[in-house]
What does this fold into?
Amino acid sequence: MKGKARLRQLAPLGISIALLTLAACADSYPNTTFDPHSDLGRAIDSIWDRLLILGTIVFVLVEAALLYVVFRYRRRPDDTSKPPQTHGNAVLEIIWTIIPAVILLFIAVPTVRTIFKTQAKAVAGALEIQVIGHQWWWEFRYPEYNIVTANEIYIPTGRTVNFKMTSQDVIHSFWIPQLAGKRDVIANRTNYIWFTPDTTLGASVWNGFCTEYCGASHAKMRFRVFTVKPDQFASWVAGQQRPAAFGAQPNAPPPMLMAFPGAKNDRAAPAPPPNPAATAASAANATLASAGPAYTFPQNQAEFDYAKPHTPIPAGLKFTPGLTGNAARGQQVYSSAACIGCHTITGNPMSMGVTAPNLTHFGSRATIGAGTFPNTPAYLALWIKNARAMKPGVLMPTLGKDEYDPQLKQKVTTGGLDDQQIADIVAYLTSLK
Amino acid sequence: MADHHSHSEAHGADAHVSGEVQHHPGWSTYWKVALILTLITVAEVWAYYIPSFVASRAFVPSLLIMSALKFFIVVAFYMHLKYDHKLFRALFTGPLFIAASTLIALLFLFGHLVAKFGPG
Amino acid sequence: MSAPAAHHYTTTGLDSRKIAIWAFIGSECMLFVSLISTYLIYKGRSVVGPFPHEEWVSPTGEHFKAILNIPITSASTFVLLMSSLFMVLALAAVQNKNVPKTTTGQRILGSSRLWLLATAIAGTIFLGFQAFEFTSFVHEGLSIRTNLFGSSFFTLTGFHGAHVTAGVIWLLTLLAIDYRRGLGPNDALIVDIAALYWHFVDVVWIAIFTLIYLIK
Amino acid sequence: MATTAAPAHLAPKSAAAYDEHSGIWSWIATVDHKRIGLLYLFTALGFFIVGGLEAVIIRAQLQGPNGTIVSAEMYNQLFTMHGTTMIFLAVMPLSAAFFNFLIPLQIGARDVAFPRLNAFSYWVYLFGGLFITLPIFFKVAPNGGWFGYTPLTTPAFSPQVNIDFWVIGLQILGVSSLAAAFNFITTIINLRAPGMSLMRMPMFTWMSFVVQFMLVLAFPVITIALVFLLFDRFFGTQFYEIAAGADPLLWQHLFWIFGHPEVYILILPAFGLVSEIIPANSRKPLFGYPVMVYSGILIALLGFGVWAHHMFAVGMGPIADSVFALATMLIGIPTGVKIFNWIGTMAQGQVKFTTAMLFAIGLVALFTIGGISGVMHSSPPADLQQTDTYFIVAHFHYVLFGGSIMGIFGGIYHYFPKMTGRLMNERMGKVHFWLNFIGMNLTFFPMHFSGMLGMPRRIYTYDSGQGWDTFNLMSSVGAYLLVVSTAIFAYNFLRSRKNGEIAGSNPWDAGTLEWTIPSPVPEYNFAALPNVTSRYPLWEGNEVDAESARINSQEGKTAAELGIVLPYSTIKPMIVAFSMVVMFTGLLTSKAVLFIGAAIMVIALYSWLLAPLEPEHH
Ligand code: HEA
Ligand code: HEA
Ligand code: CUA
Ligand SMILES: [Cu+2]
It folds into this structure.
C-alpha cells in the first residue's frame, strides 16, 4: 500500500514537469521568460539554465536518496531489536558539506560576472528613455527627440536602449519579461536598466507589467513595448514630434514635470543633446503635418493579438448607442472641461496639465487605461464617462453626468458631461493620430 | 522583577550560590573610573572646538576611539562585566557584534562610508 | 521580590533575572542601532533646515542657526556619567549594608538611600536638560515634523530619554522599598539589575553624544 | 494544592478557585507552561484556519482570468492579511506552542523561568491577534502587503485607517514575541536539570534556543521601523515622506533586517521537531548531532547578513548585489547538512510510517524544493526575472507550508499524546497527510510556471490569453483539496482529545526526557528533578537515568503530596496585556482611552511585580 502511495506522491510533480516542456514554446506563452530577445535577457537566461540544471540534479539526487532510504529501511514486523546505534560519520558529513559548496561555486562565479557586466554604464549614444511611474500609469520620455508619451514605447531593434527610472509617488517596478528583468521605479532615486533588442526581430510587440505592489490598480498598471525596425522607428519619431494632428499649432517642447534626483549610483550615459534632425523637424512641423501618416504598429497584425486587452466592461456601464461625435466640437468641450487640468495635448494651448498621461498622439495608441482596454471609441467613451468604474482607485474623476463615482460614493451632478459631449471628445481624441 | 520561578529543592541550591558572588572593585576604582571618563569627555569636547583638528582626517577616528573607550570602560567596570560570569559577556558581546556590523553595513549601503573608504 | 536566588536550583547557579536583563540589554543594542543608523543615514538629506551643525537661510530669507548646543549637552552628558558613579556606589552600599561603619566617610559611602536618591536626581537633571534642549530647538524652528533631521533626532534622543525616565521610576521604586524595609545584601541582586539597566542607558548616551553631537 | 503550603496572608483570595483543574477560569489564570502551550496551540490553529480561508478566497478569485469574486480593494486586504496572519498569528505562535509545552519537559524543568511573563506573552498575542484580524470583517483591514513597503503605507498614499491596524497590531505582537524570547533564553540557560549539558539538549530545544536569540535581535529592528511609520501616520514625522526627501529604501532595509531572520525563525522550530520525530521513528539517535547544532547556529548567524536578497531589483549596485548573493548562497550549505543528516538518521534505521513520520519525511522532501528555488533567487540576475512573480510565491510556500507547516503538523501528531494522554487517529492522520501532500504540490508547484511565464504576484485579476489560465486553475483546485485535508485534521484533532486511544507515557518509544513522565503531564512535570547522563536517557541512559525515569513515571501524586510548591495562578498578566492593547487602541480612538489603558497597565504591572510568585518555603 505504501508503495502505491509513494508513486501517487510523485504524480503532481510529473504532471507539472510535463507542463514545463509545454512552457518552452513561447507562442502560447506571450510573457515567458524562457525565450529572451535581448542581450540582457539572454545573459539572465543562461544563468537560469545553469540554475535549472544544477537545481534539478540536486533535487533528483536528494529525493532519490530520501525515497531509497525510506523504503530500504522501513520497519519490518521482525524488527524486534534496535538497529545499529550510529551517531554520525565525520567523513560523510564533510563530503556532503563540500559537494554543495562546489555546486554553489558553479553558480556564484557566473552570477558575479553577469552582475558586473549587466550593471555597467550603458554605452554612450544609447537611446535614453525616461520612465516615470505614476499610480497607475507609465510616463515615457525620449529627451533625445523631445517626445513625451504614456503606456506605450517604441524602440528600434539593434540599438541599445537605456531606461532611466524614477517615480512620482509610490514604488513601482518596470518589467518586460521577454526583453529584460525588472528594475524598481523609486521616488527620490534614479535607477537604470539597459539592453539591446535583437536585430533579428521583426516589428513585434511585448507586454510590460508593473511588478511592485503599488495600490488598488497594481494589476492594471501595464504597458506595451513595440520593437520596430530603425526606419519604422524614425518615421514614428517624426510623427510623434508633430504637434497634435488636429488643429495643429506651433510645437512647444513638451513640459517636463519633474527632475531626476542625482542618484549616487548614476551609471547612465549623459543624455545626448536634442539632435538637429529632431529640432529641424519640430521647426518645420507645419509642413511635416501635411506629410504622409507616420508609422504606428499595425494592430491587425497577428503578433498583436495577445497584446490586446480582454478586460470585460464592468457591469452597469451604459452608453447611448448610435451617437456620432464631432471632433471640432470635441476639441471645444475638451478644452473647457476638467480634462485640461491634468492632460497635455501639445498644440492645444489650453491643455497643459502634467499629472495625467500626455494625449498629444492619443489616436496612435493601441490601449487605454495603462493597457487595460483596447483604444476603441466604445471603450474610450465609457472610460471618459466613468473611469473609476472601469479601473479601481484610478485618479481620473468620473465625468459622465449622473454617473456614480465609486470613490466619492456619490453621483456626479453639476458639470457632468452628457453622452453627446463625450462622443465629441472621443472623436477629437481618436483624431489625434 | 519578582517573576522568578523557584524549584522547591532548597538543598540543591546552596551548591550553586557561589556563581552569584562577585568580587566587585571598591570605591577606589569607582572614582578613578569616573575621573577617566570625565577626562575623555573633556578631551572629546575640546577636540570639537579646535577647527584645524575638526578639519583633519584624524578627527572622526579619534572621536570614535575615545567614545568606544568610554563605552567599554563603563561596561567593564560599572557593569562589572570584567569581574562577572563569562556567560554575561557572551550575552552582551554577541548581540553587540551583530548590531555593530549591521550599522556599518547600512552606512555602506546608503553610500555614507563609500566616499571615505568604499569603492567610488 | 519574593524569590531570593539562594532558594532555587539553577543550572548555572546564577539568578535567572540577571540572565534575563543581560539578554534584554543585548536586544536593546539592536534597538538603538536601528535608531542611530537611521539618524546617520538621513544626515545631510533634509531638504529644508534647520540643520545640526550648519546655519541655514530659508528661501524666504529667514535665518536659522546651527541647532545642536554642545556646551549644554556636554554638561548633561557629564551629569549622566556621574549618575553611573552614584549607581555603583548605591549597589556597593546595599551589598555592604552589614559591614560596620566607623567613620562618617564610611557612613556616607555606605548609605544606599543617599546614592539611589543621587542617581535618580542626576537622571532627572539629565531629563531636565533634555526638556530644555527640546523646547529651545522648537523655538529655533526645529520640530519633529520640520525635516528628516528633526524627525530622526527627536525620535532617537526621545527614545533614550524615555529609557532614562523608566530608569528614574525604577530607582525611585527601589528607594521606596529601601525606606519601607531597607535594602540589604539579600536585595543586592535587584539593585544590581536596575544598575545594569541604568549603566546601559548611560553607555548608549556615550555613543549618541559622539555620533550625533560631536561628529559633524 | 499549592495554596495549602502557603501562608494565608500571601494566598490570593480566590486562589483555591483558580487551581481547580478545569473550568474556563483555571485557563484564564493559569501560569502553567503546558496550559499556556495548549492555549497557544488552539489559538494559532484558529488563526491558521482564518489565514487559510483568506487564501482560499484568493485562489477562488484567481481560479480563472478576470475573476470577480472580490473587488481589487478586498483582494489587497486579503493577501495582506493572509500573509500577516499566517506568519505572525499562525506559524510563529504554533512554534511558541511547542516552545512552551516542550522546552521545560525536554530540559527537565518544572516550568519556565518567568511563568507569569509567559502568561503575559500569550495574552498579548491573543489580544494583538484579534486587534489585527477583526478589521477584515469590516472591510478596513490592512492592505499594504505583509511587508508594508513605504511610501505606499505612508499617510500620503494610505490615509485610511487600514494601515494603522497593521502598524499597531504588529507593534503589539512584537511585545509578545520579545517577552517570550527573554523567558525561554533564561529558561534554557538556567533551568536545565542536573547533567543536562548544552550538548545533551534535545535538538528541538537547541533550535528553539537559537530562534530565541534571533527573535531578540530581529524584533527590535522592525519595532523601530514600525515606530517611524507610526509616528509618520500619527504625529506627522517625515521618516518615509518622499516629499521631504525620505529614502524609500530605509524601510525596506529595516524591514528585511528583521524579515530574513524572521523566515528562519519560522523554519528552525519545525526543523527541531523533525529532528525529534525522525530519530524516534527510526529507532536511531540523530545522525551528526553536533553538526546539526552548529549548522543551526550558522544558519542563524548568516541569516543576519543576507537581508538585501529581497531587494535585488532596487538598484543597490553591483557590489552590494554580489555580496548579498554570495552570503545567501552560503546558507544552502548548513541547511543541506541538516537535510542530509536527517536522511542519514533514517539510513540503517527502522523507519516506521507513523503520521508524524510521514509529515517529517514530507518536510525533508518539500523543503528541499523550496530551498532549491531559494538558491535560484539568490543569483541577482536570475532573480530580476523571478522577483515579485509567482515563482517567489512558489518558493516561499514550499519552505513555509512544505517546511514549517509540515513540520508543525508532524509535531502535533507526535506530541498530541503527551499533551492530552490520547493518540490522534492514525488512519485519519494518514488521509490528512496524503491529501495535504498532494494538494500542497498541486497548489504551489504550478506557481513556478505561472511565475516564470510572467505572472506578477499581488494582482487581483489577470487577462485571458496570457498563458496563465491552466496553472492558476491547478493551483486553485489544489487549494480546495487543502481545505478538505485541513478540515479532516481539525475533526481528528478535536475528536481525539476525548475519544482517542489512551497513549501511555511513551507511545513511540522515543528516547528523550519528555517521554519519561506520564501523559498527560502532571502539573509539576517532574516528581523529582531528573539527573541526566546522556542525550537519549531512555535509550542510552545508565542506571542514573533509569532511576530518574522510574521516579518520574509514577502517576497520580499531587504536588501537595510531593511537597512541591507551584506558583500561584493569577490574572494580573492578562490584565496588563489587555490594558496595553486598550492603550494602543487609544491611538485610534481618543487620548482618554490611551491614558486610561496606560494607567491600568502600570497599576496592574506593579501589583504583579510586587506580588509573590509562589508560597514561601518552609
Ligand atoms: C521558512 C521560510 C524560508 C526559508 C527557510 C527560506 C530559505 C531560503 N530563501 Fe527564502 N523566502 C521566504 C521564506 C523562506 N526562505 C519568504 C517568505 C520569501 C518572500 C518574502 C516576500 O517577498 O513576501 C522569501 C524570499 C526569498 C528571496 C527573495 C526573492 C525575491 O523576492 O526576489 C530569496 C533570494 O535570495 C530567498 C532565498 C532563500 C534561500 C537561499 C534560502 C535557503 O535558506 C534555502 C537553503 C536550503 C536548500 C538549498 C535546500 C537543501 C540543501 C541541499 C539539499 C544541499 C544542496 C543544495 C544546493 C547546493 C543548492 N528567499
Ligand atoms: C506559513 C505561511 C503561509 C501559509 C501556510 C500559506 C498557505 C497558503 N497560501 Fe499563502 N502566502 C504567505 C504565507 C503563507 N501562505 C505569504 C507570506 C504570502 C505573501 C503575502 C503578500 O504578498 O503580502 C502569501 C501569499 C499567497 C498568495 C499570493 C497572493 C498574491 O500575491 O496575490 C497565494 C495565492 O495563491 C497564496 C495561497 C496560499 C494557499 C492556497 C495556502 C494554503 O496552503 C492554505 C491551506 C489552509 C487552509 C485551506 C486552511 C483552511 C481550512 C479550512 C477552511 C477547513 C475548514 C475547517 C474548519 C472550519 C474547522 N498565498
Ligand atoms: Cu505600479 Cu504596481
Ligand atoms: Cu530572505
